[in-house]
Design a protein that fits this description.
The protein has about 140 residues and is of the alpha/beta class. The protein has helices spanning about 5-10, 20-35, 40-50, 105-110; strands at about 20, 55, 70-75, 80-85, 100, 115-120, 125-135. Strand 3 and strand 4 (about 80-85) form a beta hairpin. The longest helix has 13 residues, at about 20-35. The radius of gyration is 15 Å and the shape is globular.
């Protein structure tokens, strides 16, 4: 028996391994669950990312994107780089480059390290790729 679904669906690149602190994991899981009705697409994406993350101790996260991290990333489609700080929704301010974890970019960046790239789906169903260039506290 042939698997027709596998034949017509393009191969998705493997997701990069990610790490997250136990406290961040708990808080972000709660945030994702509490915002499912308001922001279903990004809340589900964040919840999936948290499920696949390796939960680790705080001191094992040097150079890993976490809440409050300063991140420089490249948009793989345009080649443009951007410097942001990853924050909780109430701290977000686009003019200050403070990006909420409840945005597709914010949810995609959590847990990545410099050099890692990820593809993710935007709310309008386009695939977008980002590469982390640097991470600092």
């Amino acid at each position: 028996m042939r698997n027709f679904e596998a034949e017509i669906r393009p191969e998705q690149p493997a997701l990069p391994p990610i790490k997250i602190a136990e406290d961040d994991s708990r808080r972000l899981s709660s945030l994702a669950n509490s915002t499912m009705d308001l922001f279903p697409h990004v809340a589900q994406f964040l919840a999936r990312e948290l499920e696949r993350a390796t939960v680790t101790k705080e001191n094992d996260l040097r150079g890993v994107v976490r809440m409050g991290s300063k991140v420089t990333y490249r948009d793989d489609e345009t080649g443009a780089s951007r410097k942001i700080v990853l924050v909780y929704p109430h701290e977000a301010n686009i003019e200050l480059s403070r990006i909420s974890i409840l945005t597709p970019v914010g949810a995609a960046l959590i847990g990545l390290s410099a050099g890692q790239r990820i593809n993710f789906e935007t709310p309008d169903k386009r695939t977008r790729g980002l590469t982390v260039l640097s991470v600092s506290e």
